[in-house]
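As agreed, record copied across for absentees:
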Amino acid sequence: MMQKKQTKVIDKGRVYITATFNNTLITFTDEKGNTLGWGSSGNVGFKGTRKSTPFAATTAVDQVAKKVISTYGLRSVEVYIKGPGAGRDSSLRALKSAGLNISMIADVTPMPHNGVRPKKKRRI
């Protein structure tokens, strides 16, 4: 007789939200960075331009949060948001409504210090 694998109870974790113009990606990890669950607007079933809407981001966060909370018993999270997309604010609201305690919100959007080298001047 096989025993069912016991899942660890993790009460603190991290949520990485990448909000691009075309999609919203959500990854739940533990404090060390090991992935517990992930999802995206496209993964939930939205296609095309509807993927980039705030509603799609909310739905994606809800689905992944429910799965991770029921499996691991996650309670409080640190949120790391990256990107300029439409799903930024709505995904935070969805995390709050899913019953998670948000201990920290950090914007980790990459900002160029000086950018790429400009094109060479046009000679006519």
Remarks:
- The first helix runs from residue 41 to 44.
- The first strand starts at residue 12 and ends at 19.
